[in-house]
């Protein structure tokens, strides 16, 4: 439940899924495939998708590295927000887009840069009073060396998951789920479930017709 009154809808934030970001991440291809599946399910459920694109000296607007990876394609009606800081809410209109334009009080987060844009935007959403859920297998990082310690990309992503999993501060609404357990449509069946139900009903009708005694119409 969102801590913001009357804003119970959700939005999916795709953080920095850009060609230049993916190039430095050994697990990017597999994670991008998971993100693509999450995006497809969000669209089927009517959950709006917001695409966040990092801009800096290496990710210049309009250049190939700044573009969203080819495997992910924003649709014309979907929101795109460029940001200069790891926290995509900082110095952008993202909070307005989520809370006012999309009327959402909850954000699902996936993307590239576990310890950068993903984590900072997760925390930024909470700081602005939004409920937030990190999808644990839909983000990744690069290998990191800091203070003489080396951390593999997998270790970095796992540690970010641990931070979200242990997020129990008073008044903070955060969560961690796997892509397989996402429930976008809590108030009813999403399109995928409706299609499956229709197929089951059609199959039952066809079976009943096949079971009729000969000569009956």
Q: How much is the radius of gyration in Å?
A: 20 Å
| Broad CATH class | Alpha Beta
Count, helices:
6
Shape: globular
CATH architecture grouping: 3-Layer(aba) Sandwich
Q: Care to count the β-strands?
A: 8
The N- and C-terminal alpha carbons lie at a distance of 52 Å
What is the arithmetic mean of pLDDT?
88
Stretches where pLDDT falls below 50 for ≥5 residues?
187-191
Structural class: alpha/beta
Using the coordinates shown, work out and report the CATH topology: Rossmann fold
Largest beta sheet: strand ordering:
3-2-1-4-5-8
* Helical residues, percent: 25-40%
Order of helices and strands: EHHEEHEHEEEHEH
CATH homologous superfamily designation: Isochorismatase-like
Q: Summarize the biggest pleated sheet.
A: 6 strands, parallel
Report strand %: 15-25%
Task: Please tell me the total number of domains.
Answer: 1
Question: What does this protein look like?
Answer:
The chain has helices at residues 19-22, 28-45, 94-101, 114-127, 153-165, 191-210, and strands at 9-15, 49-54, 79-83, 104-112, 131-140, 144-146, 149-151, 174-177. It is α/β, with parallel strands linked by helices and 217 residues long. The chain has a single domain (9-184), classed as Rossmann fold (3-Layer(aba) Sandwich). The strands form two sheets. Strands 3-2-1-4-5-8 form a six-stranded parallel sheet. The chain is globular and about 80 Å long. The N and C termini lie far apart (52 Å). The model is unreliable at 187-191 (pLDDT under 50).
